[in-house]
User: What shape does this take?
Amino acid sequence: MTLLTLKGRGMANKFFVKLLVSEYFVIVLSIVYFLIISIFVPSMLSGNNIKNIFSNMWPLFAVAIGQTFVLLLGGIDLSQTSTMALTSVIGALLISSRMNPDVLSNSPLWGVIISENGGPLGKAPIVLSVSITIAVMILVGTLVGAINGTLISKVNMPPFMVTLIAQMFYSAIAIYLTKSQNVIGLPDAFCAIGGKSFGFIPYSFFITIILGVIAHFLLSKTIRGRWIYATGSNIKAARVSGVPTISTTIFVYAASGFFAAVGGVLYTGRLMAGRPTLGDGQLMDILGATVIGGTSMTGGKGKVSWTLFGVLFYTIITTSLSQLKLDSFVINVVKGLVILGAVTLDVARTRIQQKGTLSANAKSGKKVTLNG
Amino acid sequence: MVEREEILRLEGITKLFFNICALKNVTFTLKKGEILSLIGENGAGKSTMMNIIGGVIQPEEGSMTLHGKLYTPQRTIDAKNAGIAFIHQELNLFNNLSIIDNIYINSFARYPGTPFIKKSAMRENIRKLLDSIDLHVSPDMMVEKLSPGERQLVEIAKALSGNPDIIIFDEPTTSLTTRETRKLFALIKKLREQGKSIIYISHILADVYELSDQIVVLRDGVVVDTGKKEDFSMNRMIVSMVGRDIKQMYPAERPVAQAKKLLEIENLSQPGIIKNISMHVDAGEIVGIFGLMGSGRSELANIIFGLDPYSEGMIRYMDVKLNKQDPIDRIKRGFAFVTENRREEGLLMEFPVYDNITLAVLRDYKKAFGLVDNAKLQKPVAETVSELRIKCSAIKKNQVKGLSGGNQQKVVLCKWLLAKPSFLMVDEPTRGIDVGSKSEIYNILNNFAKAGMGTLVISSELEELIGICNRILVLSKGEIVGSFNSNNFDREVILGAAFRQNISNGSTNIV
Amino acid sequence: MKGSKNLKLFFLKNMAFVLFAVVFIIFGLLCKNWFTLTNFENIARQSSYIGILAAGMTFVLLTGGVDLSVGANMFLSASICGLLIVKGWPIWAAILICLLVGFLYGCFNAFFIVKIKVLPFVVTLATLMAGRGLTLIITKSEAVSMPASLVSGVGSGRLFGILPYPIVIFFLIVAAASIFLKFVPLGRQIYAVGKDAEGSKKAGINVNGVLAFVYIFNGVLAALAAIVSVTQIGNVTAGFGVGDEFNAISASILGGTSMMGGIGTIFPGAVIGVFLIQMVQAGLVYLQVDLYLQPIISAFIILFAVFLDSVRTRYIIKLEHRNIRTEEQVQKTQKGFTLRDLFDREK
Assistant: This one.
């Protein structure tokens, strides 16, 4: 082999490693995967498919933003899907204008606040009913999150147990409220938010992007954001430096609940029904997309933009799998493996980065003391 | 006198951590039936050396000979199998298990042919062993129920159970009562009689003097002095350890107390931690708190800062009574706290220097919508960075973990300086820092005092306290047992106070 | 002041017993026919498979880890077992394969946790999802029925005509696991690793080996629990094993196991925890509490269990804080055995 090829190899290796560690790795991976899969599945390139990908991304992204907040703190929120379901049910029960007694008469709320004529806001002027409903849904989600955050920060309970229990609890409540039934009869105006588009672009896009930008700025440019990163990176050091770690934790989990509620609004509109099982099985999607994006599960590292890339990648993969006409169960298995792959990759990337910092320091003569 | 035979020889041991030379050309010999004491300041290389002997790390250059044969341990197990037992300062015990379990966790005796543990045989051995070291508790006792001194003895029993030829003690008396310390010394002497060789590491020079046959002094990774105990005086030990011209290390002028009272503490107590602490710090002062490990120094600091609770007493700052557990309130009033462990509690290692520096003052640089006012921060940050002479090319990019220890500590000081504190509490200000940076930090503290700040320095290095403080308080077992002014700083007396139960009969002598 | 502190500590240490007694009495007062042998037998039967899961889960929790995939593991192994029998395999062979599947599932988890060093709950969450999906593919989401012989033989059968087999298997497992934890070196090392993994490594323990063992062992026990469960129900449906991991975790934690690792027992701890949970569920059914409310109440119980564990852990941390003891206190300990030791359970 010629010297040139060897050198070329070395450079190629360096290039790949640099790419692997860079922030844009996932986006590049998405594009590469998309191009390759399009060769085997030409239907991927159809306008319909692209439209699908584009509209599927946004509600998932909204919820994933909330999960990103929590992961930044080194925690996790397993209750987001039940929060989606709970807000969906509550919202639908409030705003539905007609309910079938055969379906919903078993609900504990029947005759109390819901009836054949729907919920308490069913016959109210549309602007009022939609805005109040959305406000209530968001409030419920945020409250759920705040309760989680309080238990985690004040009682010192492990996040995954608290949110796991919350998941069981709120899911059971949602199912109880409608006795497992879906609630239909939602006004078009409400459903349009999650379901309709402005030309080619779905409304959910606008809503999510605006929220995403706000979230991005909050994390990167505000004091609250600095506090979140500090608490997630080293909670002891943060506390000593005057960071209000308890209120920061409550804030973050409340934010996660907030974004889960946003997801609830979007999905409920899209499906045109309040569903007590909304989000069932989507937890892995949310977690997977966020982790694939590069946000670390141990805290202190991550960005909203990364999560966007992760959601894009994840959506492309799942769409391609369904285009391949694979069984939904197969898709689940693949999803599980993809997530395993993603966290493995994350571990590898972190190790490479650490090695890089250490050797770079050594080269530049920077002193590295190990407590001696 | 019979010339004792050589058992362990280190020749030319050199150890590099990346570009730093932790040990250079270290050579010494340990003889059979001898107690060799290794002394040196923090960061001199004692732990590194022991880790090499113990097989935790390997040297770049040099060789070790054990019983005349080449000794190259790759893992801790190799050292253990070679007959070297290591008793660390931080005990390596499992509190949730019994004494027997702890000692035999990797070498349980079993009923032959079965996987079942045969406790009876082991129990007998342990009982004998515990009796020989004067620890009269049941072998089945859970470690969590033992006092720190008893746990130390269990650690020793663990070491002795392997029948070692060489035993290394690393700062063993830090958590012991007087009685336990005396028992330990008697045990060590007994072991010597039995022909075992001992390496004893400690910075309590009086103990070193009492126990050793041979003394080796390490300074900055190099053996600077060695010899028989008889040829050493306390003074020679200190001079060799410290080595440099002490006058150049410390600022020329001492701080002077100003009229303003800053911190007043009255009868502060927390059961098991501190008892009846009363003290004050005025503006312009640098008050030192000296105490050995286990005296409650860092615990006191945490309590004063509001990180941990206290049950009785009062803390007043500028005549205002402080809330019990409220660090944020204290920071707002002008408190600053540099903890002893900058990696674990002082810095966000993965974050840039800039982020670390600005962390404590974010509230004061707020724009609309809670945005951080980076523009307003530019000047103050640049000023403090240059005032403290932090060596870093790109503070917004470079992660703080890439800086040297001295620079890291300066970043922590910078973080607090930005908050314009009136009172600073520093715990172990120069731990793990090279000599040059140490001097810089002493000057920084001195300048703070001149500017009117009140400072409380907590340290286990008496030399530096004598060098920079105008007053020193001595903490022992959670109580203040001595107070000294700069005009009567006497190393011996202060050390004696810290050891109070050796000199007086437990009666305190507050001046 | 000191008295109430001791009382608090006593309650925390023996929380399982106290709760059990309280719940037992309350339901005894509220339900007719509570104190009958049939009732106890029913509760014990329903506890059997969860108890086996809890035993395995305790091993994992003792090391400071967690395994969320046991329900999916149960689903997969039981389905494969049933499908093989339908295909004509002899029953004993199918059962062996079932245990093998559990074993492999555990190996898969162990690989990612020990070798790649990914957090246990992420790994097991992912394998939970993949495992369920895989099983649904294999069974084409249809129910798999078990042969009647197995149901009547093991499920309803009784040893010596009196003791139902499921309960017997449960107790055998509990006994074996408890003996293992106390009298076999690996069992003691599990406690050591859970308390201090770094220190364990320094002491020469094969930490990776210990961790791999607990996850693999847990996998096998999950498959065994599946057999015990399926021989009582008669078939495997899509909901088989759903949520059982949380029941197992709660039972273990209620019984005194700490999520931090290093503390906990199977007997009496996890066993009491299992009976407690089953008792509550049986009692709720007895009292004909709304089916929809039951999971809400279950969630509360689990929340309570974890809450108590967190409080207990904080207390223990406070007590282990660096302590400056006086001479008298040291003397006291050196007196050795006190009456209190009789009431302190060995961990």
Summary: Chain B has three domains: 6-243, 244-334+421-511, 345-420. Chain B touches chain A through 47 residues (CB under 8 Å).
